Each structure stands twice: as structure tokens, then as C-alpha cells.
Amino acid sequence: MFYRKTVFILFLFIFSGSTMAIGSFDFQGGGGSDDSSSDDSSSDDSSSDDSSSDDSSSDDSSSDDSSSDDSSSDDIGSSNSSRDVEALVLQHMQLSCSRDVKRPSFIRTTKPEYFSTYFGNVVNQQSLKEFFNITNNQYGSTCDVLYRKYLSKLFHKALVFAYDAKNIKSITSYWGFSYNGSSRGAAEQDALQKCQSSYDKKESHVCAILFSNNTITNKDYLSLAKK
User: Fold this and answer.
1) The overall pTM is greater than 0.85
2) Which of 87, 112, 132 is the last residue of a domain?
3) What is the mean pLDDT of the chain?
4) Spacing of C-alpha 141 from chain mean position
5) How many independent structural domains does the chain possess?
6) What average pLDDT does the segment 95-108 reach?
7) Which domain does 136 fall in, by range?
8) Last residue of a domain, one of 62, 87, 112
């Protein structure tokens, strides 16, 4: 009887010790799992920080590139603007077309009826030479070279001359043209001012526009040309 009780007590002791060992193992395993989760969380936080840092660097780089592009665009725009301003600066050129003496009669190449048509009022390569023929004045080669320059200029431009208002067929004293005008009126006004302030202009002569852009505008000349 005593033997059975002793065996029973040993059995309980062994069974109780095994249960405690198993419980201790589960507890330690659970602790290991929490540490692993903590490590994973730390890893995720670190990855998130790295990703945020990369995005921030990318944004800064994009911002710098954008600023650089804007700066380059401003430089190009400023350069183009400067060229546009230069292109609109009024310029004036004097022509060597004046004659102090009358010449023998010259033969015109157009008929009076021509100036009553649309094309009679349009400037062409022979328009200035024909003016000299009709007004009976010598047309020189130097004047022709400078007239070609007038023809090559873009709008707005105006060709001016000084003559006796009582007799347009008399001698002339000043020739020149202005170009790069911001408007037709601006080119005409500049040409007239240059003519009036020139020492080559005779006091008794008046300054008038002969050609404005590609149109013959002087009424005294057109009236004479139609006769």
C-alpha cells in the first residue's frame, strides 16, 4: 500500500513538471514572435523613411530642373525681345539723287492713262526712274543703287524728297528714306523730319513723301504723270 502511494506521488510530480515545461516553452515562443513583429515594424518604418527621402530628393531635383528650364526660357525670351526692339528702331538713309541743273528732255516709258489704273499707284523697280523721266531730271546710277535698298526693306518705310512746290519739274534738293517704322505714319513722319532738318534741303523747297511702303502717294507727281 505504501509502495502504491509512493508511485502515485512520483507520477504526479513527473506529470506536473512536464506541464510546467511545456507552458514555459509556449511563453518563450510567444515572446520570440513579438520581437520578430517588432523587428518587421522597424524595418517597415525604415523603408518608409528611405522612400520618403528618395521622393523628397526626386522632388528637389525636379524643382531644380524646372527652375533651370524656366531660367533658360527667360534668357531666350529676353534675347528674342531684344532683337525685336532692335528691328523696330527707325533708320534713315539719304539718297544721292539731287541735281542742281536741268537736263535735256527725257522720254517717259509709261502712258498717262497708266497712272489712272491700280498699278499706276504701285511702286515697282522702275518707279523712281520714271519719276525722273516725267519730271525731266537726270537719274543717276548711285541713286538707283540706293533705291534698290529701299525696295528691299520691309514695311513700314517712306521715301521723301524736297522740291519746289510751285513746279515739281524743277530741280530737287533732298532725297532719303526711313525704314523699320512701327507704323506707316511713324516712317513717314521720321522721313519728313530728316528732310526738313537737312542742310542739303533748299529753303524754298518743301519736303514731301513720294513713296509710302509700296504706294505712290505724292499728289503733285500723280497729277503731272496723268497729263
Assistant:
1) no
2) 87
3) 73
4) 38
5) 2
6) 66
7) 91-225
8) 87
